[in-house]
Amino acid sequence: MRFGLLGPVEVREEGRLLPAGGGRARLVLACLLVDADRLSPTDLLIAALWQAPPSSAKAQLHNLVSGLRRRYRPVDPALIETRPTGYTLRLGPHRLDLADFRALAERGRAAAEAGDHTAALALLDRALALWRGPALADLDGPGVAALRETLHRERLAAAEVKLDVALALGDHDTVLREVEPLVAAHPYAERLYRHQMLALAGAGRRAEALAVYRRAYRRLVDDVGMEPGPLLRATQRRILHGRPVAPPAAPPARPVPRQLPPAVELAGRGPLLEEIAGRLDGTGAPVVLLVGPGGVGKSGLAVAVAHRLRTVYPDGQLYADLRGSHGTPADPHRILERFLRALGVPAADLPADPEERVTLYRSHLAAARMLVVLDDAADEAQLRPLLTGSGGVLVTSRRQLAALLPVARFVVPALPAADAVRLLATGAGEARVAADPAAAREIVRLCGGLPLAVCIVAARLAVRPGTPLDELRRRLAAQRGRLDELTVGDLDVRASIALSHDALPADARRLLLRLSLVTAADWPRWVAQALLDAPAPHARTVLDQLAEVHLVEPLGRDATGQDRFRLHELVAEYARERHRTDEPPAERDGAVHRLLDGWLALAGAADELLGDATGAPGPRPASPPEDGARAVRAGALDWFETERAGLVAAVDQATAAHLPDVAAALALRMSTFLGNRGYADDWEHTLRTAIRGARAGGSHRLLARLLDALFKAHLQRDEHPRLPAVAAEQLAVATALGDVELQVLALRNAGLGALRLGRFDEAFDRLERAVATARGRAAPGPLLGETLDTLGFARWDTGDAATAVSLLEEALAVDTPPPGSLRAALRRYHYGLALTAAGRLDDAGHALTAALRTSLAVGDDLGTAYVEQALADVATGQGRLAEAAQRLERSLAVHRTVDRPDGHAETLRALGDLAAAEGRWSDATAALHQAVGIWQRIGATVQTARGLARLERVAAAAGDEAAAAAYRGRWRSVLGGLGLDESALHLPAGLTLRP
């Protein structure tokens, strides 16, 4: 028989159409065919048939399946099998158009990836020709729409690959003919717009290609509130600039995240795994919840299910450990940030508002076949922002989460005895278990059938081959403790963990308990040395003892070369309990202090290497632990990147431990790195956490430094309205302390805040006061240098280039930042900007080149992007237009991934200047319009006027006098309202405006 789903449901035998029955019978047949050779669970079939199932639903389903069996028995008596929880249609020798389509499409994709485009086109044509119309065209019912949509997504994916192949073959006519109806049917599929643009550009119809982008932009912004993604934007830019665009590769343009941990071998669980997978096969419940006690194997089961379903979710799998069983569960909005980055969303496009972030996440997954695995959920509130409404979501939790609806809930039971014994034998040895099967069965019973407990016992047996199983059985039977939330009958996992704990040497027991104090998800080896307060070799030996019995899990080496470890959640809970009773509070506090001291010493060393350390007063840590110090010396930025989560957790821990000065010092030591790498959420979180502690009872000198850093964080995010309040509090604290240096910093920030808000008289009053106060110090040094630098930058920003150059030269004379430091790069960058505005382009090039060398040497990607843009301005002014284009391309590449809209807009403005210098008026207009749009969004009024003035010049050059007049009126209105003249426009050399 040949079954058909890609159109009306049909069954044929030797070309003859066979009856498929009435509507419900046809729907049951379709569901069984979609799941051919796999279990179709009874409850999912019922859900597909009835919105509100009648009490006789199972009986009616049975009758429908029986009718299908009778109808096709003459051809295949064994076509449909009855299973305990559903039915399976065995395809065997029969044909199914859906299966043929998938096989041909996959072969076509493989041929395309291998470069055999002619063969790929033929295979994909055959695959798409199997479609006779909309899938399941003659069916309706509660589950039909979702199933039909799933199949249509597969059709679209194959069609997109065909378009890729046709483009690679240069067959633009075929692409244009076939893409038009696809765009109409899928108006938000960005790849289709890209195909259309590439085909039009390839056919020499460049203006039409750019018109397609404008339509796509408007459709996406108006309908779903999102701008086009980076690939479509890049295609538009390359077509706009007349550069060739390579045809798209056959794989999907969107990143395909594969975040699942490695699958573990499961003992038993086969039927349960199959049933869970059946619920997530695309036709069942979109959310499946696995609940049960810790150590029962929920995480391993979830990961195994997710690996099995990889082909069902071809767009990828997202994974997050929500740490619900830990003291501080993961913040769902930080998880969203990680997910959105994995989905290809640039950092610059990540919304700060939590609700907007949720909306963007769901929009990205709305049309994707993607599985999201959320491990160890704390509660419903933590989960809700992460639920997608489409695709599949697999959740594990210790709690029932009764308010999470709708959901398919599975209680993961303890292992049956036979499976638990097999698991024990895997770890302890087959021969050993076979020699005493009765003792083995009793051991796993006493472990409560929990996989973690069984594994711990097996590990202990493995490292003590002389211990008889019966001896261990007797010791297990004598234990009667329990972890409060982890119980199976009257047995629990606590007794099993205690057996391993009690067999350890004294230092290993001590380290295990103290590791429960670590709040980071994983940690480097030096942590053990700090907690034990012992030499590094001894700490290494003790940690290895814990790893040998699987109480600590080695995770391998990180990017900095450090060995990393984690403590399993159940072992950590046991250790926390014992630690509260087994160690005096003074020793616990000492261990926490040493741990935080280690983090602070290493963060301080790394911050000093970045060359931008504030030198803020605070706790003086001991020398950094050597294991960590080596990693810091190898690369400070890389070390910060690796330890970011641990450092954020350390700030939280110091605050919770009532150590506000330690929290403040840690937050300050992280500040340069977090700002440099654009980790805005972590930056603000650590600073605000430390500020709360400092206000409540910490050092007010540190509070002033924290407020200074918070000001920078708001400034970097262009949150200008928040700046005055932070600067005012900073000034009040500094004045109360009578600290001149802190007062200068606060005045400088007050001036910068006023500058950003267009209050220029106030800005220069504060900045001049700051400079005067700094000059009055006996040894002004860096303080005066930094303050002069800020004042010089402000004078440049408002159009007084000559004064700016003088101030910045004085700043360099009174204070020379350490060579190779971020401060040195920033100082040269500001000087280069002022020299450019003053028309001294050769000198500007020298200053900016020095800044670029430093930024590259320290790995400051963001600073490098700013300097590249400034050097492009110099190159454009000196007629080196090809060099300018290359520099701006590099700058844009960074700004696509870092949340700095001001820098992004400046680079677009520079692109506009470059295009104008080349006489490409339409390209210049497009780039300048984008820049002005960004500046208006962030409230950058002076920059807006600069963009409008350039648009006037371009419109006039293009002969559009009406547009030029309109732009002229707008920029003059903006500058007039600010009290600035045309010098603030920073127009390129040779550009004049009409009077």
Automatic annotation (TrEMBL):
It comes from the Bacteria. Residues 610-629 are annotated as: Disordered. One of its GO terms (biological process) is regulation of DNA-templated transcription. The keyword Manganese does not apply. InterPro entries: AfsR-DnrI-RedD_regulator, BTAD, NB-ARC, P-loop_NTPase, Sig_transdc_resp-reg_C-effctor, TPR-like_helical_dom_sf, TPR_rpt, WH-like_DNA-bd_sf. GO terms for molecular function: ADP binding; DNA binding. SMART domains: BTAD, TPR. Residues 96-240 form the Bacterial transcriptional activator domain. Keywords: Transcription, Transcription regulation. This is Tetratricopeptide repeat protein.
